[in-house]
């Protein structure tokens, strides 16, 4: 509802009135639900006295103090064949590392994400490995990895490598549905790297598919607007 600019408050009021029930869920539903609730709350940044801001504070305290250990405990109980769920929750641990645990440590986060990609590759999960490359590229251009409006050398080098790997791999999946998402993300990352030629190539590939942008996450919608200003009228 938030991504599509619908009546967000109608849903949020229900959540506010039942927030304690969400905290009573078992793992991993507990963590995943609280995370989804908090995504729009972080974006909208309500005044501290607002009731939604109180929910945001409550969830942030959970994420900072309890979530990492609860996820770790949950992972230890997974079976060896539950590869997809293991990787998903390992990636959630990465999210907590970068969002809640300070100071930010790029090397540790990069190593964890690379390990997850390796697990995907070893288990023949090509799509997941490709999008892990894109997620790694996204992390490389996180605000913490900038210095004087320029990506620091090590993150930039890693970003260039993983964007290249993702682009090469996507060529093998011409008709797979997620290729469309891959194209718009590649356009975004090439633009960050100031490679406007490749950015325009993947932007045009996305436009050719004619998939409405509102089907994608709000951050992709936001960056898409910037690409439109750069390319759509040229």
How is this structure best described in words?
- The radius of gyration is 19 Å and the shape is globular.
- The chain has a two-stranded antiparallel sheet.
- It contains 11 helices and 2 strands; from the N terminus they run αααααααββαααα.
- It is mainly alpha-helical and 234 residues long.
- The mean pLDDT is 92.
- The protein starts with 7 loop residues before the first helix and ends with a helix.
- The longest helix is centred in the N-terminal third of the chain and has 26 residues, at 51-76.
- The protein has helices spanning 8-17, 19-23, 29-44, 51-76, 83-99, 106-122, 126-140, 153-170, 179-192, 196-209, 218-232, and strands at residues 146-147, 150-151.
Structural class assignment: mainly alpha
Output the strand order for the largest sheet.
1-2
| Helicity range | over 70%
Average predicted confidence as pLDDT: 92
Q: Percent of residues in beta strands?
A: under 5%
Instruction: Count helical runs.
Output: 11
**Biggest sheet statistics:** 2 strands, antiparallel
The N- and C-terminal alpha carbons lie at a distance of 33 Å
Task: Describe the global form.
Answer: globular
Beta strands, count:
2
- The string of secondary-structure elements, in order, is HHHHHHHEEHHHH
Which spans have pLDDT < 50 for at least 5 consecutive residues? Answer: none
Cα gyration radius (Å): 19 Å
């Amino acid at each position: 509802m938030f991504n599509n600019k619908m009546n967000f408050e109608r849903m949020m009021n229900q959540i506010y009135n039942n927030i304690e029930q969400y905290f009573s869920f078992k793992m991993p539903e507990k963590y995943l639900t609280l995370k989804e609730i908090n995504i729009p709350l972080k974006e909208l940044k309500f005044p501290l006295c607002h009731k939604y801001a109180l929910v945001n504070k409550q969830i942030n305290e959970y994420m900072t103090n309890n979530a990492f250990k609860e996820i770790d405990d949950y992972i230890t109980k997974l079976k060896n064949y539950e590869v997809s769920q293991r990787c998903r929750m390992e990636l959630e641990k990465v999210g907590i590392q970068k969002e809640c645990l300070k100071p930010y440590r790029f090397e540790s986060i990069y190593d964890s994400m690379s390990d997850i990609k390796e697990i995907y590759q070893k288990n023949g999960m090509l799509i997941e490995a490709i999008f892990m490359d894109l997620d790694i590229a996204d992390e490389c251009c996180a605000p913490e990895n900038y210095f004087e409006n320029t990506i620091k050398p090590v993150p930039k080098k890693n970003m260039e490598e993983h964007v290249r790997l993702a682009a090469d791999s996507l060529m093998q999946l011409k008709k797979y549905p997620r290729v469309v998402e891959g194209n718009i993300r590649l356009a975004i990352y090439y633009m960050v790297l100031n490679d406007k030629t490749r950015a325009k190539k993947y932007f045009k590939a996305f436009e050719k598919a004619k998939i409405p942008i509102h089907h994608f996450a709000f951050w992709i919608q936001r960056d898409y607007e910037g690409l439109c200003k750069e390319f759509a009228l040229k």
